[in-house]
Design goal:
Length: 102
């Protein structure tokens, strides 16, 4: 983790506060800022775009030891408009290079 100072992203841009900014990292392939969050159901860590996005479907919550995420049901997302993020796998131009072959 770092101090939240990444090129192109000030610590408070997109609603980031110091508690969230400590989970900032960078995408290894496109070098974009990402938040590393753990899925509340699967326990898997995934990169999430740090700015809330219109049409986002990822709800972030800062826990005591980790940034966690969940995907609220589609019918409830309108209540969270303006606060939802999106997986970096959706926006990364190199996302296919990170997929595991089956």
């Amino acid at each position: 983790m770092n101090d939240g100072h990444l090129p192109g992203l000030e610590p408070r841009v997109g609603g980031l506060d110091p508690a969230t900014a400590r989970f900032l990292g960078i995408c290894a392939s496109c070098r974009a800022p990402v938040l590393w969050a753990t899925n509340v159901t699967s326990g898997r860590r995934n990169p999430i775009d740090p700015r809330p996005t219109e049409g986002g479907n990822v709800k972030l919550t800062v826990g005591p030891a980790a940034l966690v995420y969940e995907v609220p049901p589609a019918g409830e997302r309108h209540k969270l408009a303006g606060t939802l993020h999106i997986s970096h796998f959706v926006t990364c131009p190199n996302a296919t290079s990170h997929r595991k072959k089956r």
